[in-house]
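Lab meeting, item 3. Inverse folding demo.
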């Protein structure tokens, strides 16, 4: 049983890591939003991994997501802030913590399955928003007024409202749909296996 669970966790980690990398290096991870802004769903696989398979798998997927972001920032930066994402404290560490926070919230509310998944998605998304922007403020030597014409804290508030909240809502919808479907499939598979065993016993 332990070997089966280990293989399952590795498989889920591999699949969701691949999804996170694809979302990170293609336009599929970015959804156009109002006034030319955009929201990201690149962190969603990390939350799904944490809810389905626990904190270790969630943190591994977060690690791979963060490393892919760091590599992309180094190889093909596409924005004024991208060069700062070569720092793993900005690009990698916050993404690892997403998995841990999402799992802690889900575990604390697990007796209420649907609210637990929604809360985990919200918590994971806000963790991503707060820690990434916060890390830029702490570890990137940026003159925000000169670069963007706005101070750090007004920028933080604007990003949180304009991006963080819509991203959290989007993540909650996607995570709920994916996790509910997965658990339904998983439940059906387990039921079929039990029925097969019962049939063999009866024979």
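The presenter then showed the designed sequence:
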């Amino acid at each position: 049983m332990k070997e089966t669970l280990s293989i399952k966790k590795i498989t889920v980690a591999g699949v969701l890591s691949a999804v996170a990398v694809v979302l990170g290096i293609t336009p599929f991870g970015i959804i156009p939003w109002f006034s030319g802004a955009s929201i990201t769903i690149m962190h969603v696989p990390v939350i799904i991994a944490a809810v389905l398979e626990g904190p270790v798998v969630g943190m591994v997927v977060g690690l791979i997501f963060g490393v892919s972001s760091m590599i992309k920032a180094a190889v093909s930066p596409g924005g004024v802030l991208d060069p700062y994402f070569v720092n793993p404290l900005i690009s990698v560490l916050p993404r690892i913590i997403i998995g841990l926070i999402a799992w802690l919230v889900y575990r604390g509310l697990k007796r209420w399955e649907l609210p637990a998944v929604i809360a985990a998605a919200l918590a994971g998304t806000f963790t991503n928003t707060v820690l990434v922007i916060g890390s830029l403020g702490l570890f990137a030597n940026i003159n925000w007024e000169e670069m963007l014409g706005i101070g750090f804290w007004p920028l933080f508030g604007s990003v949180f409202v304009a991006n963080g909240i819509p991203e959290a809502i989007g993540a909650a919808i996607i995570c709920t749909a994916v996790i509910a479907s997965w658990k339904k499939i998983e439940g059906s598979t387990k039921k079929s296996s039990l029925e097969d065993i019962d049939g063999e016993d009866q024979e």
